[in-house]
Amino acid sequence: MTLQWLFVAGTLYTEVALISILMLPFISPKTWQKLFRSRLASVVSSYSHIYFNIFIAILVLLFLESIREVRKYSSQSAVEDAKVSIHADTMHHMKMFRAQRNMYISGMALFLWIVLRRLVLLIAKEATLMAECEASIKQAQSATTVAQQLLEDKGTKDDNKKNAEAEDGEKKSTKADQTHVEKELAQTQAELEKTKEELYRARLEVGSIKKQAESTNVEYDRLLAEHAKLQ
Q1: Given phi > 0 = left and psi -120 to 50 = alpha, else beta, which region is 191?
Q2: pLDDT tens readout for residues 173-213
Q3: Contact (CB, 8 A) for 110 and 104
């Protein structure tokens, strides 16, 4: 295996290892996000699109080269030349095997390189979404707490308002009762004054009747005395 195909094979094995590590379930996207945002990763990621394009261009060229070799050794002329001798046929099959192997390795390396980049982007996006989700949950909890506090304050204000209205109602009721009592007291006093006047008049009438009775008795005694004298 020549140097470039050793490079492609090493790239393929590295990609398989990285994808396997990135897909481990016990490593959260937040951990990968912290790693991606580290100082070293930030320096590398600032030129990541350049590295990606250069690397994918190299893999595409090697993949096209492997396809060319496969077509070369699959051509009719190459097959006919291999039938000349057993050694030539063996060499043809060996070269065909190497060309197909290189095509599979370079094609898989190219495919996994695209998959690896996509996987890294998805992990970073998932970590960002998780952070936004946590921030939204915290914001919703804070808004809920504020709303509950406002409702409690409103309930307290309503209770205070009801208590104030009840106190005002009691005061108004007390004033109304006091006014009613004052009216009844004034009416009672008026009736008492009227009763006193009637009592006074009754006493005057009784005194007058007594005087009339006394004068009647005196007159009756005088008449009896005159009657006695006449007899």
Answers
A1: alpha
A2: 667 667 777 788 778 787 878 877 877 777 777 777 777 76
A3: no
What does the mean pLDDT of the chain come to?
78
Alpha-carbon distance 90 to 84, whole Å?
Answer: 11
Give residue for tokens 């004068």: 215
Phi-psi region of 38 (alpha: psi -120 to 50; beta: other; left: phi over 0): beta
Residues 142, 144: Cα–Cα separation, whole Å: 5
Q: Cβ distance 139 to 103 under 8 Å?
A: no
Give the domain ranges of the chain: 3-159
CB atoms near residue 75 (< 10 Å)? 11
Question: 220: burial class by Cβ within 10 Å (0-12, 13-18, 19+)?
Answer: exposed
Cα 223 from Cα 215, distance rounded (Å): 12
- Which tens digit of pLDDT belongs to each residue from 127-163? 888 888 888 888 888 888 888 888 887 777 767 777 6
Element (H, E) at 175: helix 86-230
